[in-house]
Amino acid sequence: MSAFEIAGASAADMELFRAWSDDEGWNPGDTDRLAFAVADPRGFLVGRRGGEPVACVSAVRYGAGFGFVGFYIARPEVRGQGYGIQLWNAAMARLDGRLVGLDGVVAQQDNYRKSGFRSAWNNVRHEGVPVPREVGGAGSGVEVIDARSLPFAELAAYDRRFFPEPRDSFLAAWTGLPGRTALAAVRDGRVEGLGVIRPCSGASRIGPLYAATPAVAAALIQRLAATVPGAPDGGAGPVAVDVPDANPAALALVSGLGLVPTFEAARMYTGPAPEVDLPGLYGVTSLELG
Questions:
Q1: Is the Cβ–Cβ distance between 70 and 103 less than 8 Å?
Q2: Dihedral sign (CA 220, 225, 229, 235)
Q3: Which of 86, 204, 249, 278 has its C-alpha lying 20 to 30 A from 75's C-alpha?
């Protein structure tokens, strides 16, 4: 049997992670890896058999007490040979002593439970071209602007309402990469919504999507969908949003906009779910990094 070695991922390996995610049907963002790398440069592991990469995982540290596991993939030709569990153990060792979260696909959820994870809610991907809403807009006094025109400290403080630890470097890259659109909803100088859309292999993905009200969330979705390449003038292109089912208003909104469920993953934690603003969370940022 060829030797199996685990090491930190290179930039070239990160390109592979994206391709493998595409093979799994996860529809990764075209440039997500560039933001992932700054979140925790040592948080991405690759397993090589005989020098060839055959498996990957991410184990990203946030702050002093939180971590997130993602990108857990063993290539089909090596599954069932013990390589995946070796990589998993290395990832969990890197996050030892922290509350750990992940988004588990249905086929793996029982295995995650055996490792001490418990479900908090499901993130249900909804896809489609949003139908127009003729009335209402974002609401009285709300202005939708380029989020990158705001002081970054305001965006980072707003993001902390929805995520357990600060992630400023990641957020700066996530909102600022070329080819993306980041919009903020502002009322009387206060941020009341944030949405980022990025190009993907399939439907462009919106995440995060935060909003004070369903009307704000709807306005952000429609404005973001209008930026999809190939969208008709005055119309929208196809989008995908990973919606937490712990927010019934969010599910009702995307269904009302004509988006349909296409994929599901369980948000799971090794301990009590961290306290975040679930009523304002309409779409999670990333299934790989939380």
A1: yes
A2: negative
A3: 204
